[in-house]
Amino acid sequence: FHFKGKRVTASINNSEKENKTLIFRTRREGDVFSFQKRNITKPLGKALREINVPSQLRGSVLCLCEGAAVLWCEALGYSEQGKKYVNSQKLTIELSEERCYDVTQGR
After folding, report:
1. Is the distance from CB of 8 to CB of 95 less than 8 angstroms?
2. 17 phi and psi angles, rounded to 5 deg
3. What is the pTM of this model?
4. Nearest partner of 12 among 77, 61, 68, 84, judged by Cα
5. How far apart are CA 38 and CA 86, in angstroms?
6. Which of 7, 33, 86, 88 is the most buried (most CB within 10 A)?
7. First to last CA, the chain
8. Which of 102, 84, 95 is CA-nearest to residue 17?
9. Phi-psi sector, 98: left (phi>0), alpha (psi -120 to 50), beta
């Protein structure tokens, strides 16, 4: 599919687990992101502020979500929950263009 001029490709092998509803969307109130290796979960907005994503871009960051749990975020990559999908169900996500925000810009 296309999102803001970028081609997004995603695939998942969902045959091994029960069917879950995964949705690509932008950030919503209540979204949370669990950082890999840090064992912490933060509201998505706070996680985006932590890596200095400008406020005007935070609402347009593309995410793959299961409910309020963010599995993948364009600016942050895979969350801890998303990593489990990558390992167990071969989840892959590719963008044809630059991310909306390059995480190296703010550092």
Report:
1. yes
2. -125, 170
3. 0.78
4. 84
5. 18
6. 33
7. 31
8. 84
9. beta
